[in-house]
Structures are given as structure tokens and as C-alpha cells.
TrEMBL record:
Gene that produces this protein: pfkB
Single annotated GO MF: 1-phosphofructokinase activity
Documented EC number(s): 2.7.1.56
Enzyme category, top tier: transferase
Name of this chain's protein: 1-phosphofructokinase
Domain of life of the organism encoding this protein: Bacteria
UniProt xrefs under Gene3D superfamilies: 3.40.1190.20
Length: 319
């Protein structure tokens, strides 16, 4: 059944400002000088929205944003051409500082506390998601939760999205992922660690992984993708099970690989592609993302050239 709704929405409840600075010879307890730095408005849903825009698809972004440092996000939203429906919360969106020392080849992380949305902010987000879901084909809920937001809220949001006739996609981990799975979203993409936590044991070979994915299909999750880092990913949907393997590429930064894979799956759905083509597109986009610094590829060509080198194997028995 093809949905006639075309809008795409991403929900980022816990975005962050990533501040990366290079400090040669960084030392604790001393005065350190920054040689160069960059700050980026980050968050899984924001990254996914950026990728979807490269396909020219219409995207609205929502979630929670602090009033005190919203400008960097507002600029990114306007650069990307996405509609800003973020709920503003008093205070500052969390900042994550990465201190890179080229001399010791070390990275030091300093993570600020984030926003603490209250019940009224959560209500406003629920209303926003309900309103946007009415016109949306797909709503993606991605990333971690801010302090004070219970994991069950993710499952509740999935319920709201489904009730308005949109397809829910979830990328989170731990209890929030477990809550989402109980609400049976349309697509999930755990990595192997997240899947192990979800099923309560380390998964074994590919057959075992496919069996777990099929169990989730039976519970109402249409597409279960399990990503395996450089080994690629397994996609289980509608009686089909495909293993997709990227070519060996030079990994510059794996930041955003999972986001690119989800962006590719959602774009492929929006473009009406069959499973195998969606899988090829998603795997190529993820590999292209890994080959360069930062979570966003410059253009789709980088992925296009990799598509022919993606190896897709049918894991289905007797088929
Ligand atoms: N070194 C690599 N070479 C090629 N492709 C890669 C590499 N690492 C990751 N990928 C691609 O990116 C996909 C997602 O990566 P991964 O399994 O690490 O997701 P993740 O742990 O959810 O990542 P994230 O940190 O973005 O949440 C993989 O399934 C694979 O297709
Ligand atoms: Mg991930």
C-alpha cells in the first residue's frame, strides 16, 4: 500500500553542539592554546534531515532546543532548507567538547549537561509530532534522551506517530529502544551491540541474527536492519533477508555512518525503491560517509560511485 503523504520528519530530543578543537601538547592542569576549532549543530535527526534534503525531499525537524544557544541550529536549518519545528526549552542545548591532540594522538571529551525538559515541554513535543505526523509519510525518532525524559516516552511517541497514519523509524539504544520496539515502529536499525542488549544476549551468526529480526517482523516491525560496522548490514523485511557488504574503504571517521544508513533507507522508501535498491543506496551512503571527516557527505555522487561495489547476498533459506 503506497502512502500519498510525502512529508518527512525527524525528531531529535537530545541534540548537541559539537565543539572540536585541536590543542597540540594538551595537558590537564595547564594553560592550553587552541590551534584550530570548529563547532557544529549536531544530532542524529539533524544529520538524517540533512541527507534527506540532498535528495530534494521536504523535511521538518523537531525535538528540544535550548533558547540560549539556538542560533547555530537555526542557521543550519536554514542552510539545509528544513522547516524548524523544535520546541524551545529554557537553557542551553548541551555542548560536547572534543580536544584533539595531534602530538599524543589522543582525544579528550568534555560533555556538558543538557537541557531538562519538563512535562509541559514534553506535551508540546507530543502535540507537534502528532500535528506533523498527519501530513508525514515517515517520522524518524533518533538519538538519546535528555535527562528527565523516561525511556517509555519513545514508545508513546511511536504510538502517536502511528495513530496519525505515518510510518515510525527509530534509532536509539537501551531502554528507549526496548520501549520503541514494544510499540512496533515501521523500521529499526540497531547495531549488533544494541541488538544484543535488546534481546538480552549476544547474537551469534547471521542465521541467529536473521531469526531475531524475523521475530520482530512478526511483532509488527516491517523492516529490521542490523548494522555491523565495516562488515555491512543485514536487512530483514517481508520474508526477505539480505546481507549487504560495502567495499573495503579507508575509514576517516565513522561519525554519522548509522545516520547515513537510515537516511538512505528513508529516502529509498520515499522514492519508492524496492528493498534491494534501498539496501544498496543505504550501504553506499554509509560507506561514503565513513570515507570523509564529519557526519555529512558533500553530495550524493560520492555514494553513487560506490553503489556498484556493494555486494548483496540473499540469506533466505530455500528461496
Ligand atoms: N569502516 C566502514 N567501511 C564501510 N562501511 C562502514 C564502515 N563502518 C560503518 N560502515 C557502514 O555504516 C553502517 C552503520 O555503521 P555501524 O554499524 O557502525 O552503525 P552505528 O554503530 O549505529 O553507528 P553510529 O555511531 O552512527 O550510530 C554499517 O552497516 C556499514 O554499512
Ligand atoms: Mg547507531
Amino acid at each position: 500500500m503506497q502512502s500519498t503523504k510525502t512529508g518527512l520528519v525527524t525528531v531529535t530530543m537530545n541534540p548537541a553542539i559539537d565543539l572540536a578543537c585541536t590543542v597540540p601538547g594538551f595537558a590537564a592542569g595547564a594553560v592550553n592554546r587552541v590551534a584550530e576549532y570548529r563547532s557544529d549543530a549536531a544530532g542524529k535527526g539533524v544529520n538524517i534531515a540533512g541527507l534527506l534534503r540532498k535528495f530534494g525531499l521536504p523535511v521538518t525537524v523537531t525535538g528540544f532546543l535550548g533558547t540560549e544557544n539556538a542560533r547555530i541550529f537555526e542557521k543550519r536549518f536554514s542552510d539545509l532548507g528544513v522547516t524548524d519545528a523544535f520546541v524551545r526549552v529554557p537553557g542551553e542545548t548541551r555542548i560536547g567538547i572534543k580536544v584533539l591532540d595531534p602530538e599524543s594522538r589522543s582525544t579528550t571529551d568534555i560533555n556538558f549537561p543538557g537541557l531538562t525538559p519538563d512535562a509541559s515541554h514534553l506535551d508540546r513535543l507530543t502535540e507537534t509530532v502528532a500535528r506533523l505526523s498527519r501530513e508525514a509519510a515517515v517520522v524518524v525518532v533518533a538519538g538519546s534522551l535528555p535527562v528527565g525524559v523516561a525511556p517509555e516516552e519513545v514508545g508513546r511517541l511511536i504510538g502517536v506517530i502511528k495513530a496519525q497514519g505515518a510510518r515510525a523509524v527509530v534509532d536509539t539504544s537501551g531502554p528507549a529502544l526496548a520501549s520503541a520496539v514494544r510499540a512496533a515502529p515501521w523500521l529499526i536499525k540497531p547495531n549488533d551491540d544494541e541488538l544484543a542488549e535488546l534481546v538480552g544476549r549476544p547474537t551469534g551468526d547471521l542465521d541467529d541474527l536473521v531469526a531475531e529480526a524475523r521475530r520482530m517482523n512478526a511483532e509488527g516491525i516491517a523492516t529490521v536492519a542490523v548494522s555491523l560496522g565495516a562488515r555491512g548490514a543485514v536487512f530483514v523485511e517481508d520474508g526477505q533477508a539480505l546481507l549487504s557488504r560495502p567495499p573495503k574503504v579507508e575509514a576517516v571517521s565513522t561519525v554519522g555512518a548509522g545516520d547515513a544508513m537510515i537516511g538512505g533507507l528513508v529516502a529509498g522508501m520515499a522514492l519508492g525503491l524496492p528493498l534491494e535498491e534501498r539496501v544498496r543506496l543505504a550501504t553506499a551512503l554509509a560507506a561514503a560517509t565513513v570515507m570523509q571527516a564529519g557526519p555529512a557527505i558533500k553530495d550524493l555522487n560520492a555514494a553513487k560511485v560506490l553503489e556498484a561495489r556493494i555486494e548483496i547476498t540473499n540469506l533466505q533459506k530455500g528461496g
